[in-house]
Amino acid sequence: MTTDIPLLLERDGAVASICFNRPSALNAIDPAMARALLSAARELAADASVRAIILRGAGKGFMAGGDLAVLGADPQLGAAELIGPLHEAVRVLDTMNAPLIAQVHGVAAGAGLSLMLQADFVLAAAGTRFNLAYANIGASCDVGASWALPRRVGLRRALELALLCDTYDADAAERMGLINRVVPAAELEVEALALAHRLASGPTLALGHLRRLMRGSQNRDFADQLDAEAAAFQACAVSDDFRIGVEAFRNRKTPSFTGR
């Protein structure tokens, strides 16, 4: 695998894979990788043929966090150079219809854990370690962790993870709802790709509406959520996939969704 490119963007049909590629630094994110992630997110968002996305890391871990050499040299400038493109990247990924899967192994810490939290599904290899880590260097979190973490594990557990910075193994992460499931390390890549292709064969427009409805549900009252559901359903009802799904159901066949 090429090691002088900070991020690799690969395709397998309708599935795109974003691979963090600084294995010698446990994929600690530096400004070049942050900019590359934003560029990849924009490229994928502009491509309607992308129907599922995998986030993964090269080498021995998913991501160990931000590059402390960058942050230590000039804390304010370093933070700006990392946070600006990282935040814009997750904003772009959040707008997409394509579901996002995190394929996690080794370690997910700091910004790595924050990025993982933005995924709709997280598959983790047995033996993976998780630590929010920010308080260990005297920092608060970024990349949407303060939004996502309470929604994944509840406020009290989120505060425990954030303030104490304890390390959790994959089984503990699964029990608390931080990840979806633990997978044997040798099977992680195959399992993540199979899930991605399953999602990519689904009604992509409807999946996009579903992920936005779920993500936005805690920011709306019940009446507003009902309005959002009605608007989303109406948008789905005029899609090709809705027609295909209804016809397949009537004829007792398996639908072949197009993503449109």
Overview of the molecule:
With 260 residues, the protein is an alpha/beta fold. It has two domains: 194 residues, 2-enoyl-CoA Hydratase, Chain A, domain 1 (Alpha-Beta Complex), CATH 3.90.226.10; 47 residues. It is built from eleven helices and nine strands. Strand 2, helix 1 and strand 3 form a beta-alpha-beta unit. The protein is globular, with a radius of gyration of 19 Å. The mean pLDDT is 96.
Radius of gyration: 19 Å
The low-pLDDT segments are none
Number of helices, counting only DSSP H or I runs of 4 residues or more: 11
Largest sheet: 6 strands, mixed
**Shape from CA axes?**
globular
Percentage of residues assigned to helices: 40-55%
Domain unit count = 2
Give the strand line-up of the largest sheet: 1-2-3-4-6-9
CATH top level of the largest domain is Alpha Beta
Under the CATH scheme, the architecture of the largest domain is Alpha-Beta Complex
Q: What is the strand content?
A: 15-25%
Number of strands: 9
Q: Which structural category fits the helices and strands?
A: alpha/beta
Mean pLDDT: 96
End-to-end distance = 35 Å
What's the quaternary structure here? single chain
CATH topological fold name of the largest domain: 2-enoyl-CoA Hydratase, Chain A, domain 1
CATH superfamily of the largest domain: 2-enoyl-CoA Hydratase, Chain A, domain 1
Topology pattern, helix = H, strand = E: EEHEHHEEHEEHHEHEHHHH
